[in-house]
Amino acid sequence: MQPIAFYCDTNSIEQNAMDQLRQYAQKPFVNNICAFTDIHYCSEKALPVGVAFETSGYCYPLITGKDIGCGVMYLKIDKEYWRRPFDKDAHYRALNFAHQKMTDDGLGGGNHFLSIEEDANAIYIICHTGTRDRGIALYQQCIQLTRDFSLQYGQAVDFVHTDFLTADFLKYYNDTLQFGYERRKNFCFKTLIFLQNANYIQCNKEAIDRNYLQANFKGKDHTGAMNGTPYLLEDSIHNHLRFEEQRIVHRKGSTELEKGKTVVIPLSMSRGSLLVQPADLPGAGNALYSCAHGAGRKLSRFDAMKYWKTVLKEKQRKAFKEQFAELLDRSGNFPQGYVQEFDFAYKDSVDIFKHQPYLKKVTQTIPVVTIKYSEI
Ligand SMILES: Nc1nc2c(ncn2[C@@H]2O[C@H](COP(=O)(O)O)[C@@H](O)[C@H]2O)c(=O)[nH]1
Ligand SMILES: [Mn+2]
């Protein structure tokens, strides 16, 4: 068995996730397998979430599941351009409505989100979404590829030789990752323009395109000005295979790092997000330039519902209802999907820097308003 690099507290790993991890560490061609602080069991696939490993000569195209190319983008605006606090009563519903028109496919289910968060100096528009149907189609192609390779190999295997990966397949794979990046960009820029339109951000209002929700901002630079407001954006992905010259890095729910680049580790709807950079580069290299992609689930969706109904006291449920009144349905209850995303469903984040010492904190943001998943 290949040794496992634990960038997390081993005592905090559930037994079923540990079993999955150990099984993977025994597989052929799997090298330098790393487990991060958000490691948790994945019922659908044989590898836990919160893991990275590398291979050469062969790859495991199915480890990601369908959400290939999922990632998190942030767009930062200096607070000197921020004019007033976000008024949920006046604008939550309008933003929720607008976000459904920002792309063809919406944010997607689960814990995908579009949030406005802040620290002392800046406002951050943060978007966590993937590649929707394109990721599913690519995953189906990965299944076919693995089947075809198995036939040639003479037995059913879950890996593929790199000679089997045609230039067309690799282009298709990378184009799908690019599609996710462009979708996140459209969410971020259109949210910025929504805020400009609603007088939250100082800008040149005359320059705003009335049809901005139909426009495509995929080509905008990472720094610049939008309708007179300076911005900066960065993107990162956490569910993909990165085909490099000498090796293939596999990341299943672990964020790809790059020297000098700030990435978001989202924590929860109540806690906001951490923005981090790789500080110790040899250290980050040993961790395959990867880190946790979130706080990580502590409670399964089922257990989160049980916790809500049976562990929390009425007073505590009331406090959630007051804090997130905008998410209540007409009968005054939260849809299940939101309850499953509340803070208690996620792990503590103290381990993030303790067990991934190659990371440095850039800032921590707190949420202003969050739009949760949307299926279109
Ligand atoms: N800032 C926010 N972070 C959130 C929210 N909901 C979930 N999360 C965190 O994101 C990661 C992403 O996990 P993934 O497996 O779906 O890619 C998760 O671990 C949480 O820590 C939110 O509303 N705001
Ligand atoms: Mn994701």
From TrEMBL:
<feature type="binding site">
    <location>
        <begin position="238"/>
        <end position="239"/>
    </location>
    <ligand>
        <name>GMP</name>
    </ligand>
</feature>
<keyword id="KW-0479">Metal-binding</keyword>
<feature type="binding site">
    <location>
        <position position="238"/>
    </location>
    <ligand>
        <name>Mn(2+)</name>
    </ligand>
</feature>
<keyword id="KW-0342">GTP-binding</keyword>
<dbReference type="InterPro" id="IPR052915">
    <property type="entry name" value="RtcB-like"/>
</dbReference>
<feature type="binding site">
    <location>
        <begin position="266"/>
        <end position="269"/>
    </location>
    <ligand>
        <name>GMP</name>
    </ligand>
</feature>
<feature type="active site" description="GMP-histidine intermediate">
    <location>
        <position position="293"/>
    </location>
</feature>
<dbReference type="GO" id="GO:0030145">
    <property type="term" value="F:manganese ion binding"/>
</dbReference>
<dbReference type="InterPro" id="IPR001233">
    <property type="entry name" value="RtcB"/>
</dbReference>
<feature type="binding site">
    <location>
        <begin position="293"/>
        <end position="296"/>
    </location>
    <ligand>
        <name>GMP</name>
    </ligand>
</feature>
<protein>
    <recommendedName>
        <fullName>3'-phosphate/5'-hydroxy nucleic acid ligase</fullName>
        <ecNumber>6.5.1.8</ecNumber>
    </recommendedName>
</protein>
<dbReference type="GO" id="GO:0003909">
    <property type="term" value="F:DNA ligase activity"/>
</dbReference>
<dbReference type="InterPro" id="IPR036025">
    <property type="entry name" value="RtcB-like_sf"/>
</dbReference>
<keyword id="KW-0436">Ligase</keyword>
<keyword id="KW-0692">RNA repair</keyword>
<dbReference type="GO" id="GO:0170057">
    <property type="term" value="F:RNA ligase (GTP) activity"/>
</dbReference>
<dbReference type="GO" id="GO:0005525">
    <property type="term" value="F:GTP binding"/>
</dbReference>
<dbReference type="GO" id="GO:0042245">
    <property type="term" value="P:RNA repair"/>
</dbReference>
<keyword id="KW-0464">Manganese</keyword>
<keyword id="KW-0547">Nucleotide-binding</keyword>
<dbReference type="GO" id="GO:0006396">
    <property type="term" value="P:RNA processing"/>
</dbReference>
<feature type="binding site">
    <location>
        <position position="273"/>
    </location>
    <ligand>
        <name>GMP</name>
    </ligand>
</feature>
<dbReference type="GO" id="GO:0006281">
    <property type="term" value="P:DNA repair"/>
</dbReference>
<dbReference type="Pfam" id="PF01139">
    <property type="entry name" value="RtcB"/>
</dbReference>
